[in-house]
Amino acid sequence: MIYIQLFLTFFVIGLFTIGGGYAMLSIIQGQVVGVHGWVDTKTFTDIVAVSQMTPGPIGVNCATYVGYSVLHETGASEFFCVLGSFTATTAVVLPSFLIVLALCRVYTKFSRNRIFEGMMSGLKPVVVGLIGAAAALLMTPDNFPDWKSWVLFALAAAVSLIWNTSPILIIVAAGAIGYLIY
User: Model confidence at 177, in pLDDT bands (50, 70, 90)?
Assistant: First the structure.
């Protein structure tokens, strides 16, 4: 039953999210934390952090991690936890795959159509809004447990903006500093 819930939840998330992984974070959090209660807010923040550091799209990484965690919390064996990861990952990717496959056919036919071009340009503000919602959800007091986290965040932002430092270096340095602090 949990596999069906995972599949349907992440399939719907994948189906109705436009704009990539960061745009889908708020929807994933709403479903995983709010609707199903599979993880709490702090755990979801940890999932996002690990998903950002792991190679690949953040939405897919979140789905993989959540699929594993949900089964792990029930005491399932390693095989069934991995099966949960596979289920959630497949479900979140499948709608995009099917939509892109269909759009490839449609795009070649309608690429010069003004209505089609208008629809595509109308999606841009929606994507910006979804990414902004994800950023707002991650900047709540529940997700930044104390002042040290805020200072670390401010330092990382300053280093990024002032010295145009590589994000990978900032992530590694912030991880090392966070390890030392906590």
Answer: very high
Output the pTM of the full model: 0.61
Q: Amino acid identity of 94?
A: L
Q: How many CA atoms lie within 13 A of 53 on its CB side?
A: 12
Averaged over 97-115, what is the pLDDT? 85
Tokens describing residue 63: 């789905």
31-54 burial: b if 16+ Cβ within 10 Å, else e: bbbeeeebbeeebbbebbbebeee
**C-alpha 18: how far from chain center:** 12
Contact 7, 95 (CB under 8 A): no
Query: CA of 107: how far to CAs of 76, 81, 94, 113, 161, in Å?
Result: 44, 39, 19, 10, 38
CA distance 48 to 81: 19
